[in-house]
Amino acid sequence: MGLLLIPGLALPWLLGIVVLLSLRAPLRSPSAPGEVAWIAGAGYLSGAFLLTLWMRALSLVGIKFSVLAVGGPLLVATIVLGWWVWRRNTAARSDSAQRLPSLRQALSAPELTPLACAIWWALLAWLALRFALLGIEVITRPLYPWDAWIQWATKARVWYELGTIVPFARINEWLAANGTAWFDASPEYPPTMPLLQVWSCLVLGRWDDALMNGAWWQIAVAMTLAVYAGLRSLGVAALTALVGSFLVASLPLANVHVALAGYADLPLAAWYTTAALAFLRWIQQRDWRHAALIVLLLVACTQIKNPGYFWALTLVPALVAVLLPRHGVRIAFAGFAAAIILMVVVAQFRLSVFNYQLKLDFDPAWAELAQSYFLLGNWHLLWFGVVAASAVAWRHLLEPALAPITLIVGAGLMFLFFVFAFTNASFYIADQTTVNRATLHLAPLMVVFMVLAWNEFANGWRATHAPLATA
Amino acid sequence: MPEATPATVAVPPPALPAPPRVRTALWLLALALVLCTAVYLALNIPGSWFPSATSKTLGFRDFTLTRGTGGQQGDALVVTGVDASGTALITANSDLRSSDFPLIAWNANGFSELADVRFLWRSDYAPGKLNSAPLHVSAGRLLPLNLAHNPAWVGRISGVALTVRGPLGTPIHIGGMTAKTGGLREMAGDRISEWFVFERWSWSSINTLSGAAEAQELPLSLLLAAAVVIAAGAWAALAWRRRRMESLPVVLAVLFVAAWVTLDALWTFNLARQVAETRAQFGGKDWREQHLASEDGPLFAFIERARARLPAPPARVFIVADAAYFRGRGAYHLYPHNVFFDPSNNTLPAASSLKPGDFLVVYQRRGLQFNAEEKRLRWDGSPAIAAEALLVEPGAALFKIL
To answer: Which residues numbered 182-241 in B keep a CB inside 8 Å of some CB on A?
Structure first.
């Protein structure tokens, strides 16, 4: 393994961490619930995307990729920003709330009963085992899954070997290009994930289609941290938040997408989930820094996989509900109704969007969908849990605390339903191909929704059933 | 001035209810699991709960491919095609007492969900009559067939067969057939063993996971979900009687997480087995050795030899192969050359699209002819083009277009 690989993989993580630290609202204490995990989780996702933007800029101005050209300026930026953050923290050192907690403080279970404490450590150990297994698999197995080697790593190989981003084109353009454009199965796919693979190979010093996939493992870790942090900052107790992040980290299909790295579905899920969590955090403080992070993460969604544009739009109903607290939910529902009408109208024209043919033949394969969600091994008990949590918390779903996440997942489910019911993707439900990969984009956020809904139900239940004590 | 009343405040409960309540909930979950399993067995055991007979297996060598194409490969009878009437048929002689074996289970995979698959048999009760029953396909496998209530399943079964009509898709692999007694022990053992089957990575893993055996009659997720609902209901009933319902949300969460952890423990075990297998296959090898040890090792080795004869990248290279897998993988190994391949169809490029200085890699592709003396290459009725063979191996070649 190349000596530079580990520091090279750590660089975007550190960059993202210092960017988030520098963007951190001065009023937000670093010892606030989940703050360290948020900076680490959202930090990686921000830093990794910034790294790819930098590589695209280098390619645009004609500078060849190298460890120095790509990593040097980013390292300098990391150091400078880190120094500035350190200076700012030093100035605030007298305020104990502004100090960063130690690693031990960050990991330790806060004020739990012995049983809860045992569960806390057991879950951490379970998570460590899971990521250890996934880590070994991802660095040992050369690129395996089909699309990874016909449409994703194809670009990584060419760009790494040529040291710059060269265009990929469809067959007719490729034939006409006379050797100036390259070809693969999906030339129009965005470059973010291949560029992360290129960076790994640069720091490794050679092409290696096993070791270049470390980013998938990092993304899974970052998403787990972000989910924990997001739940904590939304008022969920530490153990419950850890259970939520465990549920996300143990989704079998998400695990497969780490172990058999190379597809962009898990990365899209991670960026989208973190963007939605950043949005929910933003609602609490309405700070421009949070807004900047949301924009960065949503732009990243569009640059990871083409459906990212649609996933980014699923935050719009929640934004409307938040900005217009009196009528926002009604407007959002009116928007849903309008979207349904629009779907039916648009489907009549048999348009093609991102290679999906729209059609009006409403014939979803319900049995196969139910088999995928409830009976096969893709999601453990996720969809049972979502149904149960929605049922027990139904009174709270549109209350201010839950309405934004309810509207986001509602819009997400609607998007999935549209894809399955009104496009040629419905064929892929029957053969269990695209259905689960498309669902993976939303699945981690469904876990967040499930935990938040249960939390609201539990809070409401406590308020009415807690034993009364005499003060 | 009114007398001051003591203030009452709600005391938030601890994050988890007292251990005894959690323990009660978990015991109820265990009981519910047993109950659900018992109900399943009661509804599904086809005959005697404690039969005296033992199951009988016919191996793939006992079967004959009577109609269709294929043959024995490794540890299976492989059916690769149907006959002119669109049917494949495999037959075997048997000696089974029908009343002892109400269940027929096939160890076979590769079936299309669109195919009409049927189990056929002859008995000494009506030797001239051929009986049949439809078989259901799930995830490419055949679900066990319960013949306990089939009036034609009588007497001594002297011959069995499997017929497939319709699209085959991929080749069908038949490992054998087991006539099962369907007793309590066997049925419970079968269901439990389905949950522990090692699900190794396959091409479909990135799209879907079975969660152990490809076809499960009783999915563990469904069983656990049912058990959680029953246990939660039982706990709530007990708590309601004792007026101690305050822990309900936490108990619901504990039951759900316990069920999830059960599933995840099996998944972790499966993942650990897969990691061990991956390490055995690829561990300690460098990048090239890993690819030589992969499923497409021979293709990779050929492309490496072809690359040595190509100029420095990027040369324009076309690759053709009958199998989409070899076209895509071959192209992948050829980058950063400027490669063209047809990702979805087994087509050959128009001869006019190749120009001097281009290269053509052919790997296990029929329909190309090369005249070495005249240095002419042609395919699919296209006009011959001038080409030079740079590398020729059995089933594979590299040409330079002149």
So the answer is: 199, 201, 203-212, 216, 219, 221-222, 224-225, 228
A62 in B contact zone (CB under 8 Å): no
Helix, strand, coil fractions of chain B, as percent rounded to 5: 35, 30, 35
pLDDT tens series, chain B, 402 aa: 444 444 334 444 445 556 667 889 999 999 999 999 999 999 988 888 898 889 999 999 999 999 999 888 888 999 988 888 889 999 999 999 999 999 999 998 888 878 899 999 999 998 889 999 999 887 778 888 999 889 999 999 999 999 999 877 678 999 999 999 989 999 999 999 999 999 999 888 999 998 888 778 899 999 999 999 999 999 999 998 888 888 899 999 999 999 999 999 999 999 999 999 999 999 999 999 999 999 899 999 999 999 999 999 999 999 999 999 999 999 999 999 999 999 988 888 888 899 999 999 999 998 899 999 999 999 877 889 999 999 999 999 999 999
Is B328 at the interface with chain A, CB within 8 A?
yes
The SS3 assignment for A172 reads: helix
Model ipTM value: 0.93
Please identify among residues 157-196 of chain A the ones whose CB lies closer than 8 Å to any CB of chain B. Answer: 157-158, 160-162, 171, 174-175, 179, 182-185
Report helix, strand or coil for B287. Answer: helix
Q: How far does the CA of residue B141 sit from the closest CA of chain A (Å)?
A: 14
CA distance B138 to A368: 10
Instruction: Count chain A–chain B contacts defined by CB atoms under 8 A.
Output: 234
Asked if B31 reaches chain A (Cβ–Cβ under 8 Å), the answer is no
Tokens for B217, please give them: 């009659």
B336 and A240 within 8 Å at the Cβ level: the answer is: no
CB atoms within 10 A of CB A61: 6
Read off the amino acid at residue A83: W
Q: Is B121 helix (H, G, I), strand (E, B) or coil?
A: strand
Q: How far apart are CA A274 and CA A219, in angstroms?
A: 11
B213 token code pair: 């055996």
CB B211 to CB A377 under 8 A? yes
CA dist., res. B214 & res. B324, Å (int)? 25
Please give the Cα distance from A302 to A190 (Å, whole number).
8
**Quick one: how far is CA A95 from the chain centroid?**
33
A352 Cβ contact partners less than 8 Å away, ≥ 6 residues apart: A358
- At which residue do the structure tokens 């299309």 appear? B112
Query: How far is A365 from chain B, CA to nearest CA, in Å?
Result: 14
CA-to-CA distance for A461 and A30, rounded, in angstroms?
Answer: 31
Q: CA-CA distances (angstroms) from residue A424 to A418, A421, B17, B301?
A: 11, 8, 50, 38
Instruction: Give the nearest chain B residue to A240 (CA atoms).
Output: B15
User: Exposure pattern of A113-133 as b/e (b: 16+ CB <10 Å)?
Assistant: beebbebbeebeebbeebbeb
What residues of chain B lie within 8 A of the CB of A388, using their CB?
A: 252, 256
Interface test with B, best of A384, A452, A459 (most B CBs within 10 A): A384
- Using the beta-carbon criterion (under 8 Å), do B13 and A466 form an inter-chain contact? yes
Determine the Cα–Cα distance for residues B222 and A410; give it in Å rounded to an integer. Answer: 25
Written as six digits, the tokens of B160 are 């069995």
